[in-house]
Amino acid sequence: MATKKTYILGIESSCDDTSAAVICDGEVLSNIVANQEIHAKYGGVVPELASRAHQQHIVPVVQQAIEQAGITKEDLHAISFTKGPGLMGSLLVGTSFAKSLALGLDIPLIDVNHMQAHILAHFIKEKDTAFPPFPFVCLTISGGHTQIVKVSNHFKFEVLGETIDDAVGEAFDKSAKILGLPYPGGPLVDKYAQLGNPKKFSFTKPKVGDLDFSFSGLKTAILYFIQKQVKENSNFIEENLVDICASIQHTIVEILMIKLKNAVKQTGIKHIAIAGGVSANSEIRKRLQLAEKHFGWSTYIPKFEYTTDNAAMIAITGYLKFLNNTYSDISVTAQARLKVTE
Ligand code: KG4
Ligand code: ZN
Asked: Which of 15, 116, 138, 172 for mutating ligand 1's site (highest number of atoms within 8 Å of CB)?
């Protein structure tokens, strides 16, 4: 007799991407992401516009995710959604939609911590990829967070270090803004960096605790450097764009690698994962692959589509909680501030 399959819907709406995904026994059947172009002209996410766009996108995105999975909503076993952290208005759209759907279908509701989900995306079943063994160390690098987390099991997280000011994604995006690139600039810095010389310009690295980060000084150093150069040559940015991007990216990735080496030294754990939007960055991915050879680490790099915000990571976390019988009460509320340990 064939065993019954478990279908979980995931809904993500914490920032400016509306996403829905269906997972069946840990495998992704669909993962639809609607990006919001509207924010580019403002140079950053406008919360009011984000929540309005989520309201417009959520029904068609969920419908498409269910259709593409080849199921009907009646086949679903649970609805998982992002409870936080994120923008309150954005979170509320996903939370209230998930609650209504779970109530309507009379199936369990499962709240998911967005930061845990970035990490647990590593447990999506894929051909030819192994899950990280416990305990492992995860460097979570996104637009809002930069943390080194010790992961002891699917539900036990310990923050070993984190940023004391800006997140690494902000360092990329703010540097890009200084260079006149549109929001979010991280992927563009990465694209241009691949054509440039990473040693052309050097920026000093911050001095903070062994496992902590600080990026606001670097951003200011880049700003002053560019202002000074542009004063001498108004075409400085155009003439040096690829080298500036390569040098900024090199400095940031170098900082991340130093911190990871410190974490390995302190914990003795050599299973290293990366997660979050900035883990899409080509240089950090390359450097981690090299670390397997040079330092004997086993490294875990998420598939590109599970790096930036997506609902597949919410659905896999929902699935793991479902297997653990961890459900939410209908009175659950969105939480703009939520630690990875909560
Ligand atoms: O995880 P994410 O999608 O959203 C948050 O939860 O914050 O991360 C978005 C961040 C943005 O700062 C974006 O510029 C950055 O990830 N990012 C990148 C790359 N792709 C996305 N940064 C550097 N290189 C990339 N290839
Ligand atoms: Zn995120």
From this structure: 172
